[in-house]
Each structure stands twice: as C-alpha cells, then as structure tokens.
Write a structure and sequence with these properties.
The complex is a heterodimer of chains A (229) and B (388).
Chain A: E1 8-9, E2 23-26, E3 29-32, E4 41-44, E5 47-50, H1 56-65, H2 108-117, H3 125-132, H4 145-154, E6 185-186, H5 204-209, H6 220-228
Antiparallel strand pairs in A: 2-5, 3-4
Helix pairs in contact in A: 4-6
Chain B: E1 2-4, E2 7-8, H1 16-25, E3 38-40, E4 60-75, E5 78-85, E6 94-97, E7 101-108, E8 119-120, E9 140-146, E10 151-156, H2 162-167, E11 171-177, E12 187-196, E13 206-207, H3 212-217, E14 222-225, E15 238-241, E16 245-254, E17 259-264, E18 268-272, E19 280-284, E20 286-289, E21 293-300, E22 305-311, H4 314-319, E23 323-336, E24 339-345, H5 352-363, H6 375-387
Parallel strand pairs in B: 3-4, 4-7, 5-13, 6-11, 12-16, 15-23
Antiparallel strand pairs in B: 4-5, 7-9, 8-10, 10-11, 12-14, 16-21, 17-20, 17-22, 18-19, 18-21, 22-23, 23-24
Helix pairs in contact in B: 5-6
Classes of the chains: A alpha+beta (229), B mainly beta (388).
Chain lengths: 229, 388
Amino acid sequence: MNAFLTGLLALLSVVPLAGEVAMVRIDGGPYTRPLEKAGQVRQVAPFELDVRQVTNAEFLAFVTARPEWRRSQVNPLFADAGYLRHWAGDTELGPLAPPDAPVTNVSWFAARAYLKSLGKRLPSLDEWEFAARADARQADATKDPEFRKQILAWYSTPTPAVLPAAATMPANFHGVRGLHGLVWEWPRDFVASMSGGESRSDGTLLHKWTEPGQGAEPSVEAVRKAVSK
Amino acid sequence: MKKTAILLSLLGALIPCHAASEVKAEAAIKLPPEIRGEEIAVLTDPPNVPPPIKRKYPTKVIVKLEVIEKTMRMSDGVDYNFWTFGGCVPGKFIRIRQGDFVEFHLMNHPTSKMPHNIDLHSVTGQGGGAAASFTAPGHSSTFSFRVLNPGLYIYHCAVAPVGMHVANGMYGLIYVEPEGGLKKVDREYYVVQGDFYTKGRNGEQGLQPFDMEKAIDERPDYVVFNGSVGAITGDKSMVANKGETVRVFFGNGGPNLSSSCHVIGEIFDKVYVEGGTKTINENVQTTMVPAGGSAILEFKCEAPGTLILVDHALTRAFNKGAIGTILHGQTGEVTVNGNTYNSVMPALALHDEDVANVMTFVLNSWDNQGGEVKPADVAKVRAATVKK
C-alpha cells in the first residue's frame, strides 16, 4: 500500500523548532507513474520538499501545543490505537522515540494537521515519486538495477526497535534524505494509487512489469511500487 | 512554487479504509443449522500436525494467524529475514473439517514493513480470501468462509509482488478432513519445501537479503524443507519406531520449483496425489509436487534406520539443502556378542559429532584399546545403514 511514504530530511542534527526544517527546491518535469502504461507522461510542477523526515521532537512540540492531537485525546476517527504507540506517554518520548528519529505511527489526518500548522502540506504521490526516483548521483535512477537492489534490500532487513536519526540518512541527488530505507510516508493522495485487496486481478501489475524496452525485468519503480502496494 | 513537507508515518499508521473493513467484518452472519458449536483452531509449528478431528459434524472454527517478519537461521552462519504466518516457515498448520464455517483473523505485527494478506487454496472465490484480508502492519482483518472441498491445500500471501512474499516464506498448509477423516496412523508430520533466493551464494555467511533477479531467473541458492537447511535433520528429525505407520502432509510453497519428493530407503504405500481425495496411488517411489501444491504420503517403517526425505532433483538435496530425516529406533530381539537382548531402543537424534564423541569415549574407557571415531566415520555408517 502506498499509504506509507517517507519524508524529508534536514541538514540540522540538532532539533530545530517546528517549521525550521530546511527545504530544497525540486524543479519537477515529465514523469511516468511506475504502474501506468508507458507513454502516459505526467508533468510534475516545481515544489519544495523538507530535506528530512519530521522528527519525534518536532511532533512532540506539535502535540504539546495542540492537546487534541495527543494520544489520549485524539478523535478515534482520526487516529487508531496504534497512534504514537512507541512514545512513552502523551507528551513523553521515551527510549523507543529518540528526539531526532523520524516520528512514526502517525495517521494521515495527524500528518496533515501537523503540516497545516506550519503552513506546509503533504506531497502528492507524483511529487514524492519524482523526488524518490533519485539516487545519490542522478535525478532518475529507475533504470539502474543497483538502485532497485538497494531499495529491495531494505525489505530484507528487520525493522529496528529504534530508528536512526532522520538527518543521518544518506542524501539523494536532490539533497533529500531517507526517502528509501527508513520509513513509509504519507502522500496527500495516497488513495489515488492504492490497489484493491487483490492486486493480482487488477491487471496493472502484469503489463507494467513487462513494459516495452524493459524486457521481463520490472523497473525499479515498478518493483518499489508493487512492494508498497 | 508550492511548499511541501513530508510526514512520515510508518508502521501501524491509521488507514481509514481498514478500520471500516474491520467493522464490517464483525457484522453477525447467520449460520446454517447444521453448524453446531464453536471452537478455536489448534495451530501447530512444523513438523507437527494438529490432532485428527473427532467431530462428526461441522462447527464454527476460529483461526487466528499473525504475520511476523523476523530474522531466522537459513543455514549455519546464514540468516534471512523471513516473512511468516505465525513466526515459522512454513506457517502454522491448520486442520479443519469439510463443512466447517471458518472465521479467519489475520493479524499483521506492528513491526512488519509490508502489508500482507492470505490466499487459501481451500477457499473458493475472492482470491481465496486475499481480497478480504489485505492487512497493514499493526492491523488485523477478519473474513469468513465455508469449507466446501476436502483435501490438503497450500495457503500463501498474495500481496504484490507475490513471488517475493512467497519466496520469503509466506506459505503453509491447511488440511480439510473429509467426512469420516483418514485412517489412523502412528505418526503425522508436516513438511513444506521452498526455494530461496539470496544475494550471496549458498553458504555465504551473514544476513542475506532477498535477490529479486535470481528469483525471476529461477536460480535458487537454497531449496529446503521447513524453511532452513537442516530444519528436520539431526536432533530435529522426525521420529518413528520400527513397524509404525507414518503420514506426511507434504506441501510445496515454491515459489518456483516443483518437487520430486522421495524418501531414501522407503516406498510410499499410499500417495494422495496432489493432495486430493480421489486418486490414491500405491507403491510410489517419487511423487511430483508442484509449486502451490501438496501430497499426502503414507508409509510403514519396516526396517530400522534413518529415512531421508529429499527432493530427488539431487543437487537440490545435496547442494542446496532439500534434505530431511526420519529416525527410527528398534524394538525387539537383537543379538550382541552372542547374547540376546530384548528391549526398546528409542530413536535417538544425535549429530554425527555427538555419536563420534561417545564412541571415542567408549573406545578409550574401561579396558578398551583406544582409538578415535571421527564425525565423518559416523556419517559413513549412517549412509551405509540407510542403504540396507
């Protein structure tokens, strides 16, 4: 499910106040969604992206200021029992949530509310995908088999009990850290490309994985996308 | 220029559609009158099988299965991040009866990276349950079905990329007993073959990631029974006494290879071909079990010794791990140095090295002459014994 995507990075290793995360400009351009037919080109307009994920400390500042988003007080329509489950308490991070690690167990509604409080918004799926096509050296690494391997390798490693600091993840071509290999992130329109429960029968996977020019090898994006379904 | 930020959210984040489906699944379902009572299914880790069903009527069975992604041993010094149904590969064995109404709860552990679902080959329609069981990390889903067809069926995860989920160990067996059940045997075991694709070649040490290219090319580094090299050998062998009857519920999770299932030194008295109920072949040396398929194997242990289960595509057995053992002990008269003893020697599951150490100790103790037995010597004797 693509509901979980990743986030942005920051150049600061100290915890900045909310809203101080550095952003980079991404110029946008033509782009094809991983599971769409070849030739369906979309245009991604220029946008700015945080350079790292939102951290536990930043989210703590948010819920401290906005009690209605605390674990004990959140409206169950907007977050379920897993909301911020790794925190020690309502406004206490604890050992599983280092201040500079990306905040996880956040609902889409909570993510949206947090960003709104900063005058920001969630990226669209296309914006996220566009930024995430980059490896360290090139803006579009989707044709590089090594890139695909790196992404898939993450799924072969156990989830650590405590995540590393968001700012310590390697930066990609755009200067954004941790788009792969750290967490899943919410795009604004995650439902737009969410498959039904039965991904084998929606007909998209098969032809996507054998697009002309790619042989039987799935593209990086196809694999990542499929993986994230 | 638009300003965008990302929020992250990882495992266990709220997905509204899931909350909705969970609520919906809990709506009361009116059961047919012949369904009597309710019970929680007994689930077992391989190589164990839940006890036969004694009920003479269908009931409501509640199955609770949790998907867990965890690092476990693939081979000595080699670890792998398996995706499991219930923490083991193959997943928990499910045993129900034809006509049962099953309420299935699929949970996905909060530490999982992936959403998962389940396709039970014993279920007709809805992708075998896949369409109703897509479950995000930290969530659960519930669906129900009536078991219409008896037989031994594979279940597996069907979330894309399906091949990767299955290659990581997401399969198991569900046995739907026909009315009246099967003939009683002395021992029942659960074995599933699977092929694994790792970045490093067979034996390369450390935590080995999944290799998608090798999977697509169908070039496995490991072909194993029950999820790892040696899962059913040594002290983890299946055991049976001489004269006992054995039934093996055998499945093949794949994702790719068919199995030439064979037991060295034994002939299957009966094979329920492809896990079905109608064709029961007799006196079979090797039976073909397709990926995503099964067979029920029955045989009597006529001779003492170790039985070795293999995929008779032999380099898989001897070079990639598809080997398992059934040890039997001996009961009855045996003559040693002219004296007759009549006792029971239970099947012992000792490694070659253990046996060698004991032998060496005996040779050098009391009034014995000394000498040394090496593990390789034991292996030779074992092999020779099997051939008898």
